[in-house]
Amino acid sequence: MITDLEKFVKEAQKLGAREGAAGRPLPDAKEPDANEVRFSVEANKTFQRLVKSTSIELDKVSANHARLSVDVESLRLKAESFNDDFDFNPLLASKLESIRPTLIEQIVRLRFAEAAVREFKEIHGLTRNADYHRNPHEYWSTVVLLFALEGLVNAFFYSVGGDYISGLLIAFGVSLSLLAVGCLIGWQFRYTNSTKTHLKVFGWFSVPETALLVSLCSGIAAYRVLLEKQAELIRGGAIDQSINFAGAFLDGMTDWTVPFKGDLSSVLAFVIAVCVSLFFIFKGYKYLDPVPGYDGLEQSKENERKACEGLIRVAEESVSEVAHEQSLSRQEWLRDSAKTSASVAQLAPQIHLCSEKILSQARVVIQDFAALIKLYRSTNQNVAPTIRPIYFSSDPSLTLDTREAEIKSLIQQIEILKSSAAEIRDLHENRLRDQLNRISDQQGKMFEILQDFRRQCDSAAANRMSQRKDADFA
Questions:
Q1: Residue 120 falls within a domain, yes or no?
Q2: Per-residue 3-state assignment (H helix, E strand, C coil) for 61-99
Q3: pLDDT band for position 241 (50/70/90)?
Q4: In terms of domains, do 222 and 333 share one?
């Protein structure tokens, strides 16, 4: 025995011997006795247990077939919804016409801004573009970094006597003063390039202010000299009540040699303060264009140009978004179609494999069941050879649920689904690929349409500027 029915072999021998010895089944019995019926039930249970996993696989194939049937129908409906007669040009023309008045007025402002820049360059004899930093955060990051480093260095210089908190406060106060004054002097020095006399004089005032800033650095260093002197007196146990910090600060501002009369730290504090101040002056000078007003005009022109480009870009992007959605939906259909066809093609081998497994197990169980009943009857007959029921004359039969009808129906449905998926793909695939090519071509022509529209708006803006100039002249 190959199946689980072999455990009933010995039981069949014992039952056959007992039933035959007792004269049962009766000679005129026309139906199998209770034992054979029970063997039939056990055979069915064994078969169901053997094909349980295969039945689960078969149910999965059936569920996949139902799902793929829905997918194929969805592909058909979606493909039929794609229109061959699409054209994005009317949509683009509508978008462009809606912004035409605004764009013309924006171009007029741009042209006036460009004219103001050209006039400014002629007055000041400039042939270069404005030199200013368009990213203030990046520009001033180096200034802030140097400010922090100088503050930490000064904290070391002014923390005499171990008073680090006071030294830190003094240090950052000094650094902040040098930063503010240095940047203002650098900004003011730009006005030496102005063509207006009063602004040029204002710019040259930055030179004595620079000397005043150096005096400020000297006074700060002199203050540091006095701090060191006071710390020495405290360490010696005496306090000189005659120390005048304000006087020492003023002496340092009037005499730049005072810092050099202290220790090395005072000299370094003075030199570092002067160098950092000059760096702040340079940064204040270079942040904007050296010629005052040039950067403002250039920036105004740049803003007007970006506004013009932004109007066209909004119209272009709105149409491009529609074209992209149309293209993307067709590409998705092609991918889904190929994926669905491949999944449908896998159903037939799966269903055939399940059918073969079920039939194979059925043959084994039927064969083993026939051997079991034969053993039971032969044992029964051997014990009581004169007793032979009528049903012994026919071979035992066993009916198993092999789901044969269901499998045949499912195979037919899968073949129909496979043909339907192939038909839909053959009918619409080339058509959708042609549509994708047309969408790509129309997107390429959008650039030409936008260029032509921009030329039209430029011409209209030029006419409007002429009309305004004539009105102003009149």
A1: no
A2: HHHHHHHHHHHHHHHHHHHHHCCCCCCCHHHHHHHHHHH
A3: very low
A4: no
Contact 243, 285 (CB under 8 A): no
Judged against a pLDDT cut of 90, whether residue 70 lies above it is answered with yes
Q: Distance between CA atoms of 130 and 204, rounded to whole angstroms?
A: 22
DSSP calls for 92-132: HHHHHHHHHHHHHHHHHHHHHHHHHHHHHHHHHT--SPP--
pLDDT, one tens digit per residue, over 311-345 is 888 878 877 888 888 889 889 999 999 999 999 89
Distances (CA, A) of 309 to 107, 252, 306, 426, 457: 10, 58, 5, 44, 12
Q: Rounded distance, CA 206 to CA 183, Å?
A: 11
Secondary structure class of 282 (helix, strand, coil): helix
Residue 385's identity, in one-letter code, is: P
Is there a single domain that holds both residue 360 and residue 454? Answer: yes
Instruction: Determine, yes or no, domain membership for 96.
Output: no
Structurally, how many domains does the chain consist of?
2
- What confidence category does residue 161 fall into, taking pLDDT thresholds of 50, 70 and 90? low
- Whether the per-residue pLDDT at 4 is higher than 90: the answer is no
CA atoms within 13 A of residue 78's CA, in its CB half-sphere: 18
The stretch 72-80 carries a mean pLDDT of 90
Tokens of 74: 């969805």
- Domain boundary residue, one of 287, 320, 350: 287
* Full residue range of the structural domain in which residue 272 is found: 133-287
- The SS3 assignment for 176 reads helix
Instruction: Kindly list the distances between the CA atom of residue 99 and the CA atoms of 105, 148, 194, 301, 345, in Å, as whole numbers in the listed order.
Output: 10, 50, 40, 20, 53
Decide if 97 is inside a domain. Answer: no
Q: What is the pLDDT of residues 120-151, one digit of tens each?
A: 888 888 888 887 776 667 666 777 777 777 77
Note the pTM of the prediction, 2 decimals.
0.57
